[in-house]
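Our collaborator T.R. sent over the components below with a one-line note: 'Predict the complex.' Nothing else. No constraints on interfaces, no templates requested, no preferences about which chain binds where. So this is a plain run: every listed entity goes in together, and whatever single assembly comes back becomes the starting point for the next discussion.
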Amino acid sequence: MHHQVFDLFFKATLATLEMVFASAAIAVLFGLPLAVLLTITRPGGLWPVRPIGRLLGIVVDLTRAVPFIILLVVLIPFTRFVMGTALGTAAAIVPLSITAIPYFARIAEVSLREVSPELIDAVRAMGATRTKVVRSVLIPEALPGLVSGLTVTLVTLISASAMAGVVGAGGLGDLAIRYGYQRFNTVMMLWVVSILVVLTILVQIVGNAVSARLRKNFT
Amino acid sequence: MQNTGVAEANEMLKVEGLSKIFNGHYALENIGFSVHRGEIVGLIGRSGAGKTTLLRCLNGAENLDSGHVLVEGKNLSVLKERELLALRQRIGLVFQGFNLLQSRTVAGNISLGLEILGVPKKERQQRIQELIHLVGLEGHETKYPSQLSGGQKQRVGIARALAGHPALLLCDEATSALDPEATTSILALLETINKELGVTIILITHEMDVIRRLAHRVLVLDQGRIVEDISNELLNRGEAKHALTRSFISRENVEDMEAAGYASSGF
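Returned assembly:
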């Protein structure tokens, strides 16, 4: 491969990774507390305040119902407000995070709900505060599932980040559109697809390994 | 008057006129009994008799519809959330299903009991070692619950329950998930804890055998009421008044005979 082309691919891959991991980090930062709230506000939960749970559930589901490509466009003013620009890699992190937060929250919620209510009840009965139960029981006991959920989120973000190329974000998607699609460069297109496939497989392998390692001591 | 005073000081737990209603039915009806310090009381009843509900009332996990529960003279119903948490920490709980964290080792699970009490990290390590020694789990500190037998898991559960030097230990079917050998060893451990640490124990069970081996006194619960309150001594002399108590004893005898037959056939 020509040196300049290689450079192009290298930079695009880095940009994609930056978008994916930065938005995944934000998704966990906001999505995990959201998932905890969705879980504990259920009837019979640790903190059964139904109105809060319902409200959060509606917000999460509405956000998830909007197709990413539309969200991308709708969020342009918001992105401009937050990042100062709606173009480029950094700007793409905004819509990617907004789509990943509720996505991760719902997946994480499933894992958190699988933690035995009897165990939670027991630790509560031992005199633990709710915060203690969340920190020492709910999250650690759900951790293998949460890691799997993060893996799924990362994979989804890789494909979404490629879509962000449409609105001028950098990365592999941008490369595919400008060279592969607009200039009919099929080889470039194939390269982009190959790199995306390899990234996805790598994320999946690492995610599965970490989750399996954590699950080792679980029955 | 002086006598009354002494009696009260010795009183670990007092339940008076306790009723709990679920869906218009009495789950517990006018329950009254007291337990003095150092006593082991067995609470027996068929499933659905209200045993677990009663146990939940004893540590303030249920709101009462009437009556009250006094633990070390403190009325649970009038305590604020914070005070209730503090009081719960004076009560150790042992569960049928162990309720251990799968994500933590033996030492980590025992540590949870200490963390709940707010014991500083530096002091935890030594207390964990003491507790591990007490329940006989030396060498298993770094194992996970999934690597332990049922009896060992229950030892971890007991160690965790004892973390805060509780005055009272509530055991909810603590041996029901265990095989006979593990049951024997856990009952022996509970007896040691009672004798050496002076911990008052309330045992919930549906097995008369467990009660006869360990308890000083038996309460028989039927349809939400206490139908018999009798010392183990009188029970062994066959002086139980209520038909249900006698049926528990005779059923156990049947099991004993089966067990004997089983043993003589070469196993």
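Summary for T.R.: Chain A touches chain B at residues 116, 118-119, 121-129, 132, 136-137, 140-141, 143, 214, 217-219 (CB under 8 Å).
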